[in-house]
Every structure is written in C-alpha cells, then in structure tokens.
Specification:
Number of helices: 11
Mean pLDDT: 95
Largest sheet: 2 strands, antiparallel
Strand content: under 5%
Helix content: 55-70%
Length: 246
C-alpha cells in the first residue's frame, strides 16, 4: 500500500471522527440547539460513535486516527502498521500528518454545520469547548496524569483487541471510548488524542468565530503530552503481557 493511500485514509477517517465528535459537543453545549443540555453521557456516546465511523472509513490504513495509537503500535515492537506499510520514519509521519489534517478539517466542517449557533452562543469558553478540551480543575501536572491514564487504557486495550479472535472491531473501540469517557473523562474532558485536540484548537484560532475569545494555548500542551506518554507506555506494556494474548 502506498503512503498516499495511508494519508488519505487517515485524513478521511479522522475528519469523520472529529466532525461527529465535535458535533455532539456543539449539539449539547451551544445555545438553541435541539440537543442543548443533553448531558455528558450523550457526549460520551457521541464520541464513541464518532470513533466507530472513523474506524470504518479508515479501515484500509488500520484506522489509527490518533498519534497516540500510532506511537503505541511503534512502541509495541510491531514491524508493520498494515501489510505493506513498514514501521519507519516516513510512515509514522504520514500517519501523523493525516491525523492532524483530518482533525483540523473535521472541526472546520463542524463549525459550518453549527455556524448560526456559534453566532448565538454568548459564552466564549463554551465555543472553545466544542473544539478542544479543558480541565474541570486546572492543575497541569494532574491534568497530564489523567490524560496519560485515559490514553493508556485506550491504546493498551486496542492492542489487546488485535490479539483476540472474533473481536467486534469498530464497535468494540466505540464502546471502549464511551467507557473511558464515562469513567475517566470528568477531570479533563478526555482528549486521549493529540490530533483530536490540537487540530480543532488550531481551527478555533483561525476561523472567524464571532466572540470566540482565547484558544487557551497555555493548556494546549497537556492533551498532546499526556496522550503521547500514555500511548507509548501502553505499547511498551503490551510487550510484557504474553499471558493475556495467548
């Protein structure tokens, strides 16, 4: 498989993930929507189903949709991402590029879908919350810890999925994301994906959103660094769990 196909697959899969994921947050949070005040559990389910859609779309490239997943596979000792795509510098950065571009584009399309509601929403923080995560209690060290734990669960379980027969595939990953959000999403909003947070945050900064306020760049490193560490740790730990995959 060519790296061009990998790139396009990851762009389109991550675009769908981010469009539907940011879309459910917009539906719950923005003023005057049909889903306004639908609650955090609706957000959890929306993100889970968004991941499922993205996995189906990007199946050809292995549907990483997340640099933490890519790094988890690398640190697990894998020699290929998918048949014909070796683990090397060129393929790693191809996945990263597709993931970040797709996340950016998905956020832009979400803004287009909810343009009138962004205009009607008076609170700048609510608008930013559609695009990117923020902590319930701002403490950068503990916020990083939360993101490490949530991403570790995501990537480690995904790696375990790959060694199990009769797996449910995209639905299993969707339910995993719902579970992580319901259980570990409270402190930080569970980015668990550097592309999912940084791509839309850049979109927020660049788009002509009425009354948008700050993009909170002082926090932006947390949902990048935490998931990267969590993903790498998950990959490393997966090498030491042979009894679970026999």
């Amino acid at each position: 498989m060519s790296l061009g196909i990998v790139f396009l697959s990851e762009v389109m899969g991550t675009l769908m993930l981010t469009l539907l994921g940011c879309g459910v947050v917009a539906n719950v949070a923005l003023k005057g929507t049909k889903g306004n005040a639908g609650g955090f559990l609706l957000v959890n389910w929306g993100w889970g189903l968004a991941v499922m859609a993205g996995v189906f779309v990007a199946a050809k490239s292995g549907a990483h949709l997340n640099p933490a997943v890519t790094l988890g596979i690398v640190s697990s000792g894998a020699t290929e991402f998918v048949p014909g795509v070796p683990v090397d510098g060129a393929s790693i950065f191809t996945y990263f590029g597709g993931e970040f571009l797709g996340a950016f584009l998905g956020a832009v399309v979400c803004w287009l879908a909810y343009k009138q509601h962004f205009d009607a929403e008076p609170d700048a923080a609510t608008k930013l919350g559609v695009f990117s995560t923020g902590p319930a209690i701002r403490n950068y060290g503990w916020n990083v810890v939360t993101e490490i734990i949530g991403t570790f669960v995501l990537v480690f379980v995904i790696l375990m999925f790959g060694n199990q027969p009769n797996q449910l595939g995209p639905l299993a990953v969707a339910l995993l994301v719902v579970g992580i959000g319901a259980s570990l999403g409270g402190p930080t909003g569970y980015a668990i994906n550097p592309a999912r947070d940084l791509g839309p945050r850049i979109a927020h900064a660049l788009l002509p959103i009425k009354g948008k306020g700050s993009s909170d760049w002082s926090y932006a490193w947390v949902p990048v660094v935490g998931p990267v560490i969590g993903g790498v740790l998950a990959g490393l730990c997966s090498q030491w769990m042979p009894l679970l995959v026999k």
